[in-house]
Specification:
InterPro entries: Arg_succ_lyase_C (IPR029419), Argininosuccinate_lyase (IPR009049), Fumarase/histidase_N (IPR024083), Fumarate_lyase_CS (IPR020557), Fumarate_lyase_fam (IPR000362), Fumarate_lyase_N (IPR022761), L-Aspartase-like (IPR008948). The protein has about 475 residues and is mostly helical. Helix content is about 60%, strand content about 5%. The strands form three sheets. The protein has a two-stranded antiparallel sheet. The protein binds arginine.
């Protein structure tokens, strides 16, 4: 037999169709443990306010312990007719404690303040699991960067060769956004650490309960200041959802890079067998499915966020049933990230670079043209002209089908003739090497080896306390 948490003023039960629409147990049952923890804290608040005697409180706590045991063992599980997790747990409690005692627990609370509290409790715990997994990924990126040492590669803008960079520099460019995502979760947690319990349905409660004690018992730092806000706002759920979507996007951008590097044409990276997949028809195939799934799942994570924002938009500010729709979005995001991250980290940790090929490609495509222009600036040529002269070098090289370092001293003397003495013109060769180019980018955040070593140390300092 099912129970309902309402019905006194109704002459008939809910229609079958309504019950099916209304029901959320199939997805909110995962909040059951947090709900029982909330019920324990609430029972104590009722006891302190004199609504449960010492003996009743003791029996209530025993009953809740027993309920938790039955939930853990599976002896108690939701049934078809339970509208939501709260309804199921009330049924379980009544069966253990009896109607007389069990029926006292709901005083002074509503499923509105309950569910708003539970989603915060659950998300705060998941945020820690996600942050730990992202931290593992960041560590794997730092390890790969350290292992790459002084290796160089083509740096690209618009996907075209731009300037050579250290492989470590390129990899670390993916670590920083991920570190900021972890930081975002930490910041978010401080804002989510306020308990709505005690807000009641919207206006607060009349029973003299102490919501602060409840909040502390449930791991919150304080109580929400406004009971309507406490029960009706979901900006914190949406903010969590944004960070989850952003993580998806950040991982997707690294995925895209790995997919390109792993093509036969690039051949910059080889994925470990344990983290690649084959084809059912083409025996030679080794596919970067983890990176592709990561890229694909980013779309889904974004969809969860936009769906949630659309649900919230235009809601009048107090509880409305629309808010039941907040949960599946973030549940899906958490499930997605917790499956994706370990696989993705394994792929990153085990991928092997073809440093020789990367180095051979690094200076090609006239990637040292900026170095020529900046060398000219150091010879006091105004940058506007230096840019023109370097462009001229590129034009000549391109016409001949050679690279910049294949131009002769006479070429450089004649191209620079209006600005430089013949005796100094060929000095430009000093910057026509990949390492010369990379190591001259000494400004803070630049790709010079010393700067990248500092950068990796700074990243480690950032992640160690996390
Ligand atoms: N299951 C609902 C939710 O997830 C909580 C129940 C509130 N229902 C109500 N009729 N006030 O939001």
């Amino acid at each position: 037999e099912g129970i309902a948490l309402w019905g006194g003023r109704f002459t008939s039960g809910p229609s079958e169709a309504l019950a099916r629409l209304s029901k959320s147990t199939q997805f909110d049952w995962r909040l059951a443990d947090d709900d029982i923890a909330g019920s324990r804290a609430h029972a104590r608040a009722l006891g302190r306010a004199g609504h449960l005697s010492a003996d009743e409180l003791e029996r209530m706590e025993d009953a809740l312990d027993e309920l938790q045991r039955q939930v853990d063992s599976g002896a108690f599980a939701p049934q078809e007719s339970d509208e939501d997790e709260a309804t199921a747990l009330e049924r379980g409690l009544l069966a253990i404690a009896g109607d007389e005692l069990g029926g006292k627990l709901r005083a002074g609370r509503s499923r509105n303040d309950q569910i708003a509290t539970l989603i915060r409790m659950w998300l705060r715990r998941q945020a820690r699991f996600i942050a730990a997994d992202v931290l593992d990924l960041v560590r794997a990126i730092i390890e790969q960067s350290k292992a790459a040492d002084r290796a160089v590669m083509p740096g690209r803008t618009h996907m075209q060769h731009a300037q050579p960079v250290l492989v470590a520099h390129q990899l670390m460019a993916h670590a920083w956004p991920l570190m900021r995502d972890i930081q975002r979760l930490v910041d978010w947690d401080a804002r989510a650490a306020f308990s709505p319990y005690g807000s009641g349905a919207l206006a607060g409660n009349t029973l003299g309960l102490d919501p602060h004690a409840v909040a502390l018992e449930l791991g919150f730092s304080d109580v929400t200041e406004n009971s309507i806000d406490g029960t009706a706002s979901r900006d914190l759920v949406a903010e969590f959802s944004f960070v989850a979507a952003m993580l998806g996007v950040d991982i997707s951008r690294l995925s895209e890079e790995i997919i390109i590097w792993n093509t036969q044409e690039f051949a910059f990276v080889r994925l470990d067998d344990a983290y690649s997949t084959g084809s059912s028809i083409m025996p030679q195939k080794k596919n970067p499915d983890i990176a592709e799934l990561a890229r694909g799942k980013a779309g889904r994570l974004i969809g969860d966020l936009t769906g949630l924002l659309a649900t919230l938009k235009g809601l009048p500010t107090a509880y409305a049933r629309d808010l039941q729709e907040d949960k599946e979005a973030v549940f899906d995001q958490v499930d997605t990230l917790l499956v994706l991250l370990p696989a993705f980290t394994g792929m990153v940790a085990t991928m092997q670079f073809n440093f020789e090929r990367m180095e051979a490609e690094a200076p090609t495509g006239f990637a040292l043209a900026t170095d020529i222009a900046e060398w000219l600036v150091k010879q006091k040529v105004p940058f506007r002209h230096a840019h023109e002269l370097s462009g001229e070098c590129v034009r000549v090289a391109e016409e001949r089908g050679v690279e910049l370092w294949d131009l002769t001293d006479e070429d450089y003397v004649s191209i620079f003739a209006d600005f430089l003495d013949a005796s100094v013109a060929s000095g430009v060769r000093s910057v026509l090497s990949t390492l010369g180019s990379v190591n001259s980018r000494l400004g803070k955040g630049g790709t010079a080896y010393e700067r990248v070593v500092e950068q990796m140390a700074a990243a480690e300092e950032t992640v160690i306390p996390l």
